[in-house]
Amino acid sequence: MKRLLLVAIAAFGMSVSSCTMMNYGMKRQENYVHFDRTDLDLSAQFSAEGKSVKILMIDWSRLFAPGHHPDGYFTKSGGVPIIGSPSADCASREALHKIIKDHPDYDFIIYPRYEEKISGLWPFYSKRTAKVTTRLAKIK
Fold first, then answer.
1. Could you tell me the pTM of the whole model?
2. Dihedral (C-alpha) 87, 88, 90, 93: value to the nearest 10 degrees?
3. CB distance 74 to 67 below 8 Å
4. Mapping DSSP to helix (H, G, I), strand (E, B) and coil, where does residue 24 land?
5. DSSP code of 134?
């Protein structure tokens, strides 16, 4: 009986005790910067074209290509901010990459426009061609 009472007290003590955990945080920071048009150098419009061919919903040419993730993101280009709507498909991202690669002096992409043409018999075969027209900007 005495042993059962000690086990019950120990079990109760272990169940109500806990580790001490401390959490430190910051208030949410504002993640935007206000620019005036006079703070930026805008380029003329640039255009580029990207292509993607998928067989059985897989882009086999990008799957094993060096410098690419399987989902089409370029790993060696670095992140370039896009003001406006970024595109989700590989062909458009390839076209944006070509524009940035040809004009490395600029800091970000401003409001790209996408023209896409899709052909084929999905999901067995699809060919996507994307033409991107955009302006680039750099901070003065």
1. 0.65
2. 30
3. yes
4. coil
5. E
Residue 15's pLDDT is 67
Rounded to whole angstroms, the Cα distance separating 12 from 112 reads: 63
**DSSP run (H or E) holding 43:** strand 40-55
- Torsion-angle region of 15 (φ positive above 0: left; ψ -120 to 50: alpha; else: beta): alpha
Quote the CA–CA distance of 72 and 58 in Å, as a whole number. Answer: 11
Residue ranges of the chain whose pLDDT lies below 50: 70-77
Contact yes or no for 62/72 (Cβ under 8 A): yes
pLDDT recorded at residue 47: 95
Cα 37 from Cα 49, distance rounded (Å): 28
Place of tokens 């991107």: 132
DSSP, res 28? P
The pLDDT of residue 44: 93
Which H or E run contains 3? Answer: helix 2-16
Task: Determine the pLDDT at residue 23.
Answer: 52
**Amino acid making up residue 34:** H
